[in-house]
Amino acid sequence: MKTSHQGLKRVYFATIYSMKGLRSVWLHEAAFRQEVMVSIPLITLTFWLNVTSGDQMIMIASLFLILIAELFNSAVEAVVDRISDEFHELSGRAKDIGSAAVFITILLTAFIWTWILV
Questions:
Q1: Average pLDDT, whole number, for the chain?
Q2: CATH number for the 30-117 domain, one of 1.25.40.10, 3.30.1540.20, 1.10.150.130, 1.10.287.3610?
Q3: Which residue of the set 70, 98, 102, 109 is catalytic?
Q4: Can you tell me where the transmembrane regions are (predicted)?
Q5: The pLDDT value given to residue 1
Q6: To bridge 62 with a disulfide, which of 22, 95, 109, 115 should be the other Cys (CB 3.0-4.6 Å)?
Q7: How far apart are CA 69 and CA 63, in angstroms?
């Protein structure tokens, strides 16, 4: 699907499509909603912690990385489900790898927060 939009019009439509994607993932992916609901209080908490502004930004960025990984994972799952609802080893592998990416990002975030706070 090639678009003919250029310049600010392209940016406008890209923003519309991005908002549509965020709405879709919010409506259809419980994991994304849960990660957002955990991230919001943790981001708020960083303003009360005795950490440098640089450490605070790293802590917040690590939470956003989880959300980004979940967006990619959800995209992979949607494409795999679109292709077929039958079990296929490669489909399962793709979904498992996407899930692993989210898991590794969560571990990274836990490491970063532990490193900074301890």
A1: 95
A2: 1.10.287.3610
A3: 70
A4: 57-76, 97-116
A5: 60
A6: 109
A7: 10
